[in-house]
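Researcher: Here's a chain I'd like modeled. Treat it as a single chain, no partners, no ligands.
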Amino acid sequence: MRKTLCYALIIGAACCTTSPTRGADKTSPPTAASPTETARELVRHCADYYKRLASLEVRCDWHERTVGADGKLSENKSSTTIAAERPNRVALRSNWGDFGYGLICDGKQAFSYHEFPVPQAIAGAGPVPTQAKVPQQNQPTPEYMEEVAPGSLQELTESPIIASASAGLWANLPFALRLLADDPGASLLEEVNSLTYIGREQLDGIPTHRIRFADDLGITWDVWIAADGDPVVKQVTVDLKSLTGIYIPPIPTSWTITQKYTEWKLNRPAARDAFVFTPAHGSQKVADLFAVPMECPLLGKKCPNLAIKLLDGGTMRLEKHLHREIVVIVSQLDLANPFLRPLLNALDQLAKQYRDRQVVIYAVNNEFDSTIELRKALARQAVDAYRKKHQTPLDVLVAIDEVKQIWRTFCGEDLIGSAVVIDKEGIVRACEASGIPGLKRRLKRDLDAVLAGK
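Model: Modeled as a single isolated chain. C-alpha cells:
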C-alpha cells in the first residue's frame, strides 16, 4: 500500500477565505429579530458578499487542542496561504509540522503535491522550523501529479489532496473553503441543525459578530465575522468534544480546533507567479498521488450470486441485476463513524447522477460481532440524518456485511475495502480501494468506461 495512505490520516489543515469590495456597508443584524433570524441574515449577507468576490488572498493559522482524561494537553498547528481567482485559479500551500502539501491551478492545469520536509519557506507563512529543513532517513520522496483543471473553484476545493488533509473531518479543513463554493449560502449551512446569534464581540481589538452553528452530532462551531467594513471571517472555533467516547478513543475531556484568518487581500491582482507550480527539488511526478495497488481475485471474472443484506431489512441477490443494471459495491465501510459521512454523501450523489443510466450503488457497512447492534443503530442514525438534511430519499443502497462475505469475495486477504464495478453481464470490470481520497472521481471514470463499452 502506498505510504500516501498515512498522509490521509494526518489531522492537519489548510485554510482560505473570501471578500468583494473595499468600503462595503457595515454588517448590521436586523433589529427586533430572534437570535436564529439574526444569524441567518448575517450568514446570507456574508454568502452574497463572497459569491460576488472575484479574487482573494488570505492566510489561515490552524490550532488543535485536546486535553486527555489525565489532564495532559496535546496541540497541533498548521498554517496555510490561499490565493483564489474565479473561475478556476487557485494556489493553496499548507504546512503541518514537517509535512507540506498543496494545490496549484493556473486555470488550465492543476497540480497536487506533498513534500517531506516542508520547503524552505511557504509564501506568506513565515520561515519553516529548523528541524523541518533537514531530511530524515527513510522519509518518503516528495511527489506531485498533474490533471486538467476543473471548471470551478468549488471543484478544486473537492480535490483528493484536500480531502486527504481532512482525514474525513471537515473541521480539519478551512471553514473558509466553503466560501469558494458555487453557492456559498448552501455551503455555509451544510451539516447545520441550528443557528444562533451570540452577539457583538471584540476579537483582537476588532468588532465582530459571533454566530454559533451546530449539527446533529453535537458539534458546534462559532464564527466571528467582521462587523465593520467587509464581512470577512476572522476566526472559527470548532468544539468536537461530542465525538469522543464512541467515536474517538481514548476519550479527551476537551477537543477544539481554532482557525484564525489574517492578511486579507480582496479583489487585487495576484502576483504574476501566484498560480505557477514549481516542483520541490527531488520531487517525483506520479500518475496518481493516492493510487493504492490492490488485487481483486474476481477482476475480469464472473461475480458470484451474492446475497446482500440491506440495512433497512430484506435481502437483494446480485442475479436480480443481471442483464438489467450495472452494479457498484463499496465495501468495508464504517457508517457509524461520523468521519465517513462525506463518503456517504459522495456515493449518494453518484447514485443520483447515474440513476437514469441503469446504475445501482451499494454502500456496505462493515460489522463487528461484539457491537453489531450498536453499530447498526449508529449507521441508521447517520442515514436518517442524511435523509433529513437533504430532504430526499437515499439513492445509494446501504447494506451490512455481518459475516464479511462481501469483503472476502472482492478483497481476498487485503485488509482494505474495495469498490467494484460489475457490468450487466455480471463481470467485474474495475476495482478500487474504497478508503482512498478521490473515490467518487475514480468510480465516475470507471462507470463511464463501462457505459461506453470499454
